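Technical annex, item 7. During the second reporting period the consortium partners agreed on a shared format for inverse folding records so that results from different sites could be compared directly. Each record opens with the tokenized structure and is followed by the designed sequence. A conforming record, contributed by the partner at site C, is shown below for reference.
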């Protein structure tokens, strides 16, 4: 099966020659900076839509851009390049200055060391930058990717109530030139996009978790034939929650075809920041959701996760964190504070970006995610010998898609997870990209990070067969 067209774009880390218009824009970057101060996410992608947010949520605001020096590390996608320098934020407790610009080019969480009891980095000018990273989670995420020498992959863990990043790890076997993989938005979202489709079905489609459907086929392809119910063949009957957990492609394709309009799915995608900028010290690739309007089959395939959508690991973590935080998406925080010569320069404060769902619908969506662990594609990764590998109830969503490009075969394996279900404390997004030979699945790093967070000593040190076998949700 061919991947979505973005999956055939240049590999992360490559720098295709930009078009002439882009080179001209770079030449006038200094003159544009003053006009590009961030006053809200809608100004990044055009005028605000009345459909944004829930119940008239205010326009989200983020840190201002200060300075005219662009980061020296190029973003992974030219289209995601941010004009401007570092993000700045008022620091109420600052002793000598009210603003401090985060030097994005100099900060690297992979170079974090123990600093004043946490993880941080001392910059060349002596500034101490303290990260929100949890030392144990960062080590577990990084070591899991390295131990199994994944083709390339990234893991992001977030505290959903505050947006604090607890882990941000990446690895590319034999490719030290690849970097900032957590921010790369060129990978297909695959069935992780069913989270967005489910949110749309809950809000616009009038669906409830106990609604049922009977289907057949659709594991690896979807055609117009699959959209037509068959009393003779449709013998696999599941509730909405079970269909989400098993990642039933035909179920989601039919529901979208019967209950939704393309504009509704596009609206929900935009609420979850597809096609929009994410405020962060570095340029974050813009995740895409191209929802077909004139193609019935194309719309159904997009809703099921087969095509038309891309996603970065950071964005994947944020969208699940929004569901976990009663529908409110928080801005991601990596730098907790900064100080120099004993003076406080910066103290981060949690900031809400957008209310993407009502608390009631977010809670219902969390229940669907739990079915992935108890019933569906995540069960084999989170159980062993019939016993759970985690001491708490968890939820998740898998996603897998295979395709070929100029670099050969790519097998994308996603897993996003949240725990505990009753009162979520952590969200993990894990993406592993394998070649012809599988090493581990995306669920494995996510599981290991959750186990470390909840201090369970051992989960799956020796990788099981299930950890390597391809997921069958697409």
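Designed sequence (site C submission):
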């Amino acid at each position: 099966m061919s991947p979505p067209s973005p999956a055939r774009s240049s590999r992360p880390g490559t720098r295709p020659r930009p078009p002439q218009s882009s080179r001209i824009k770079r030449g006038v970057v200094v003159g544009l900076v003053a006009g590009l101060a961030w006053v809200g996410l809608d100004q990044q992608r055009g005028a605000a839509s009345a459909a944004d947010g829930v119940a008239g949520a205010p326009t989200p605001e983020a840190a201002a851009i200060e300075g005219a020096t662009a980061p020296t590390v190029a973003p992974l996608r030219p289209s995601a390049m941010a004009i401007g320098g570092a993000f700045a934020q008022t620091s109420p407790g600052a002793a000598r200055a009210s603003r401090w610009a985060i030097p994005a080019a100099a900060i690297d969480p992979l170079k974090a060391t123990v600093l004043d009891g946490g993880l941080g980095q001392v910059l060349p000018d002596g500034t101490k930058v303290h990260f929100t990273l949890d030392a144990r989670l960062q080590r577990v995420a990084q070591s899991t990717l390295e131990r199994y020498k994944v083709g390339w992959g990234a893991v992001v863990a977030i505290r959903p109530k505050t947006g604090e990043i607890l882990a941000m790890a990446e690895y590319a076997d034999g490719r030290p030139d690849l970097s900032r993989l957590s921010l790369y938005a060129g990978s297909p979202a695959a069935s992780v996009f069913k989270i967005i489709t489910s949110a749309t079905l809950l809000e616009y489609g009038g669906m409830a978790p106990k609604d049922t459907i009977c289907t057949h086929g659709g594991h690896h392809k979807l055609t117009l034939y699959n959209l037509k119910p068959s009393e003779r063949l449709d013998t696999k009957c599941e509730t909405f929650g079970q269909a989400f957990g098993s990642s039933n492609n035909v179920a989601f394709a039919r529901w979208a075809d019967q209950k939704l309009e393309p504009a509704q799915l596009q609206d929900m995608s935009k609420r979850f920041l597809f096609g929009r900028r994410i405020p962060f010290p570095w340029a974050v690739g813009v995740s895409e959701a191209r929802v077909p309007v004139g193609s019935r089959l194309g719309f159904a395939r997009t809703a099921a996760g087969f095509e038309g959508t891309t996603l970065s690991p950071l964005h994947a973590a944020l969208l699940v964190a929004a569901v976990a935080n009663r529908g409110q998406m928080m801005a991601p925080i990596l730098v907790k504070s900064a100080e120099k010569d004993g003076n406080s320069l910066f103290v981060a404060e949690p900031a809400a970006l957008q209310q993407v769902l009502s608390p009631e619908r977010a809670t219902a969506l969390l229940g669907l995610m739990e079915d992935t662990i108890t019933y569906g594609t995540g069960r084999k990764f989170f159980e062993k010998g019939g016993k759970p590998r985690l001491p708490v109830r968890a939820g998740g969503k898998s996603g897998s898609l295979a395709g070929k490009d100029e670099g050969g075969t790519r097998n994308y394996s996603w897993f996003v997870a949240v725990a505990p279900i009753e009162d979520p404390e952590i969200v993990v997004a894990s993406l592993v990209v394998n070649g012809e030979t599988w090493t581990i699945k995306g669920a494995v790093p996510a599981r290991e990070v959750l186990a470390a967070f909840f201090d369970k000593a051992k989960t799956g040190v020796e990788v099981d067969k299930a950890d390597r076998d391809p997921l069958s949700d697409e």
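Residues 5-468 form a domain with the Beta-lactamase fold (CATH 3.40.710.10). DSSP finds 14 helices and 21 strands in the chain. All partners now use this format for quarterly exchanges.
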